[in-house]
Amino acid sequence: MKSAVCPGSFDPVTYGHLDIIERATSHFDQVIVAVLENRSKASLFTVEERISMIRENTKHFPNVVIDSWYGLLVEYCRANKVTTIVKGLRAVTDFDYELQMAQINFQAAKVETMFMATSPTHSFLSSSIVKELAHFGGDVSTMVPPNVDEALRKRVAGTTNRSAGD
Ligand code: PNS
Predict the structure, then answer these.
(1) Domain range holding 119?
(2) Which atom of ligand 1 is nearest to the CA of 104?
């Protein structure tokens, strides 16, 4: 069985992530969506909350499995005998970081990274942008599924519409 891992912090999952996951399902027997920690980003949702939001939006794909891992991605791959990582590339701004990660992961464990070009509809989209918009009361309904939209509203409730002096 050919498996691939789609890793990310998914804080929270967006339509951009879901597009990559869905497209990966037609190229692999099994797609493991792995929720990992990105140490350079503070998270808004717990790992359990992120998993639940992903699960709700991938339950119609029989070959999608959701998992989490604390540690190196290559260690996850080793432990689960996965040799392929699938990631979305939005723009050239993603490239330097993603190339470095792909090279490190290959050198460390011979794990290949396959990049999928993000759909142009989602090329500007990131979890960070979504959180920023939601924080200030912006409309993110075209960027995230309804359950994520609702979770974001609840999480940021009470933190918006404050004056600059607060
Ligand atoms: O969605 P993100 O935040 O871009 O995902 C980045 C993530 C979580 C895939 C990346 O930070 C990661 O692989 N973290 C696990 C630790 C690791 O293996 N780091 C790379 C080698 S230094």
Answers:
(1) 3-123
(2) 21
Q: pTM here?
A: 0.94
**Per-position pLDDT tens, the chain of length 166:** 999 999 999 999 999 999 999 999 999 999 999 999 888 888 999 999 999 999 999 999 999 999 999 999 999 999 999 999 999 999 888 999 999 999 999 999 999 999 999 999 999 999 999 999 999 999 999 999 999 999 999 999 856 554 444 4
Q: Which residues, in sequence order, are CB contacts of 13 under 8 Å at separation 6+?
A: 50, 53, 54, 57, 127, 144, 145, 148
Asked, for residue 140, whether it belongs to a domain, the answer is no
In angstroms, rounded to a whole number, what is the distance separating the alpha carbons of residues 116 and 122? Answer: 12
**In angstroms, what is the span from residue 11 Cα to ligand 1's centroid?**
13
- 163 within some domain: no
* Mutation test residue for ligand 1: of 45, 68, 101, the one with most atoms within 8 Å of CB: 101
